[in-house]
Amino acid sequence: MKKISILAGAALLAAACGTAPKRNAAVTTGPRPQWADGDSPDYPKASYITGVGSADDENAASDRARGEVARVFNADVSVTSSFTESEANASQGGHETHSFSNDVAQKVRTVSQKVLEGVDIAARWKDPTGRYYALAVLPKAQGLLAVQEKSSEIDTEATHYKTALSASTEPFARAKAAARLLALSKAQDGLASDSRVLGGGPLQGVFDGAAVRADAAAALAALNVAVSVTGDGSDAVQTAVVSGLNAAGLSAKAGAGEKADLSAAAQVSVQEQSSGDPRWKRSRATATVSLVDGRTGQTFSTFDVTSREDATEAGEARRRSLASLSKSTAQKVTAALNDYFAN
Known about the structure:
The protein is of the alpha/beta class. Helices cover 48% and strands 24% of the residues. It has a 5-stranded mixed β-sheet with strand order 8-7-9-10-11. A 4-stranded mixed β-sheet has the order 1-5-6-2. A hairpin with a 6-residue loop joins strand 9 (262-274) and strand 10. The radius of gyration is 26 Å and the shape is flat.
């Protein structure tokens, strides 16, 4: 059967399920319309997502109405945020490379934008005080087609990585495939949420969330990561980084680790600084971190982490700065390694 285009299919489905929304309706006056209170018989909730906005300006009211529709799709916001917690770019040979996870997140955002492009201002009203109201309308069928199309594309990509994960015995190849599957699975979760909002059923995909997480955990645990930290306060930072990596499923140990698959090395320094207030002591802790691929000996990521803390006692200020530095360093190392696997 020939594939119906998104726009043509959406038009047919929208026509079948209710009144076709007007585009940029003219402003009316008179009695308060029913839709101004959030209920429109012309655009039933079973077939449409609607939003009402009001403002002293006509265009502002329309923008607020569209914003009310966009708020329904907050699942995409959350899935995107989870991706951007990882490093958006990794430094490789002096060049910046866009991360796979961020690329997947952008694909999901693109779907949201495509869906929201279908939002029309179906009605406008000006009340006796001069305040404007606008009704934004999105046919659910139109948005659902865009979501289903992107879901199908993600499934096709995921099938490739599932095959690679099953066929490979090399630790890095397995970690790479697992990391990409995990990113795709999170994107599919966001699309599934949108599908439910739009009145669609469960997306039929290749993902088994529990299986993907288990495969990713096994692939990451098979890699040996060595952590070596030197300098003032190194013990606290090294312990935190090892603990953080272990918690993320990586087999991390303290020491140089000549046979390690990956190495994390850091140089730590702590300095007393003036707080500008004689009642407070300030400590500034800094770590310069390098991550090395044990297979090639190449450094694939280098970054600095800094923490500054105040306390009434110099010793306490130092302890706080090192504790904060340790936590931030552990998080950044984990994010950089996850990004490296995905790339």
